[in-house]
């Protein structure tokens, strides 16, 4: 599989506090990678560092073969990296305006076509296109966040906790939306603490205390007893394999 | 008398809206309080005095020239001061100190160079005499100031809501870090907003001699107080809320001057305290649904 994004020995932090310690992860073309970790594991810090919102203190970030660690956020977005934060939208702007802003580096005509495609993917947004994003429900805001991130035709969508603040019903809706994007060939890097997102993943990494503890397939993580205990809340004595539909949220 | 107070209150309200508009735009985008705003207005008044009264330049050219000149001055001032402020730990607090200092420097330099005597511009320079409106006689200069204010409100609205740069400006106002993540060039957009704020203050300054009667180099601080009250009444960070804040302030001011003239100077502080007690986010404060 062709490498799209890779970090090698990535280190960063805030002030005198180091948060990430030599993080190695990689995402291939058309691949979905889930980064599992509990609160405080360093997921958001890693996402911010990938986007250039936090300066890296060591290591390397490569995107499409180019070292992007010293580039500003704007240049990384221009190269095809899109980010969806926990908030994901501009609450004071309309749905239309949010999607338009997601396509800052896209020619006008293509941006319009892309917006029409996104409204087909998220019909509920089309009905509310003139409404302020702040007035949408939590699930609709997540959909808008995804649509905004996809408006610029990115190569890789990096998402920070897309399930945050959502009811299980909306989580399922978001997972369905992302599955549709994945089927279209988009690469995804999803930082989550909700293991339901494993159903999307080709590979999974676990992050603990700013270090990568595990990297493998979703089947491998479920086969590992310690990881099962940590992330699914199930031990060796539990009957059968954990059902992904019954998987637990590792939020603390 | 009531009709006159309400009518002139509305006219002054529109003008005061223009006075606060630039300050609110700058606060909305950069989250810094530009306490040199009133001094830029004073510099605009000096520019109008020299251009219209001394050089006999037409009022229309003076308004356009002042806006362009101060917009152009605002951009390098932004790059010299604001990005450093934004990198500091407490940009809001430091902005108060820095721009207050800048305000004092501007006032002191202008006082030393041109003296503290009051200057005025005769209303006839704008052309036209008193105009009858709804049975009241209103000076033509006041109507000009109100009309220019309305024109600049419309232009600001069009910029913010119907241009891509304006949408990026609103995106920064809504969520600065989110705007960075989608690739908005925050410095460029903020510099334009700062330039616009400076230009708008200068245009308000052009009309200050007509609306205030006269001006001196020390009008900056009282203008800042008025601007701040108007901005907070409308909604801090919402430039278009300034129009509502200005209208309320103008009408209240004229009613006070008409019926309780000795208390009129207390008005900015009274309205400010009242709004902060009743609705701290301002009358057009943001409402967001939390699902």
Automatic annotation (TrEMBL), chain A:
MF-aspect GO terms: ATP binding; ATP hydrolysis activity; branched-chain amino acid transmembrane transporter activity
Transmembrane segments: none
Signal peptide from the UniProt entry: none
InterPro entries in alphabetical order: AAA+_ATPase (IPR003593), ABC_transporter-like_ATP-bd (IPR003439), ABC_transporter-like_CS (IPR017871), BCAA_Transport_ATP-bd_LivF (IPR052156), P-loop_NTPase (IPR027417)
Keyword Isomerase set for record: no
UniProt similarity note: Belongs to the ABC transporter superfamily.
Native source species: Methylobacterium platani
Protein name: ABC transporter ATP-binding protein
Keywords: Amino-acid transport, ATP-binding, Nucleotide-binding, Transport
Top-level division of the source organism's lineage: Bacteria
Presence of the UniProt keyword ATP-binding in the record: yes
All residue ranges annotated as the ABC transporter domain in the record: 5-234
CDD domains reported in the protein's UniProt record: ABC_TM1139_LivF_branched
SUPFAM superfamilies: P-loop containing nucleoside triphosphate hydrolases (SSF52540)
One annotated GO biological process: L-amino acid transport
Pfam families reported in the protein's UniProt record: ABC_tran
From TrEMBL, chain B:
GO CC list: plasma membrane
Keyword Cytoplasm: no
Residue stretches spanning the membrane: 6-28, 40-57, 63-81, 93-114, 140-160, 191-212
Main location as per UniProt: membrane
Membrane topology summary: Multi-pass membrane protein
GO MF annotations in UniProt: transmembrane transporter activity
GO biological process: amino acid transport
Classification via InterPro entries: ABC_transp_permease (IPR001851), BCAA_transport_permease (IPR052157)
Family: Belongs to the binding-protein-dependent transport system permease family. LivHM subfamily.
Protein name according to UniProt: Amino acid ABC transporter
Organism the protein comes from: Methylobacterium platani
Lineage, uppermost ranks: Bacteria, Pseudomonadati, Pseudomonadota, Alphaproteobacteria, Hyphomicrobiales
